Amino acid sequence: MRARGFTLIELMVVVAVVGILAAIAYPSYQTYVLRSNRSEGQALLNEAAARMERFYAQNNAYPTAISGLSIVNNKTASGSTTVLSSSGYYQLSMAVNGTGTTAYTNNGPYLLTAIRSSIQTRDTICGDLTLNAQGVRGLSNNS
Known about the structure:
The protein has one helix at 8-59, and strands spanning 83-84, 90-96, 110-116, 128-132, 137-140. By secondary structure, it is α+β, with helices and mostly antiparallel strands. The protein has one domain (39-140). A 5-stranded antiparallel sheet has the order 1-2-3-4-5, with helices on one face. Keywords: Membrane, Transmembrane, Transmembrane helix.
């Protein structure tokens, strides 16, 4: 009569199968997380563009510093010169024509860039997200 239960060989086979499945699934999961975090960068760019246009409508000029956008969230204090997305995966950078060495000269008066930070720096497929005054989206520093 055979004893009930699992043999050591059967347990080792199950552990090996689970290990192989985990080795395949984990990189896919990481890629999925990085892809889903890109929406936060897009939201940051859209909010900044709306605030740029609102500032222009009120002052007939674009702001020359990020603090002029008055973006406040749980990662950014009021009047801060550094604007982060809501979870801190992206940092906002802006270049406005005629404001020094960072002036943007192609396709419009300003260029907004969501620069990867935190864990999003691992996203080498997409890179940093850009949005210009004409609504053209693009990528930079993708390698």
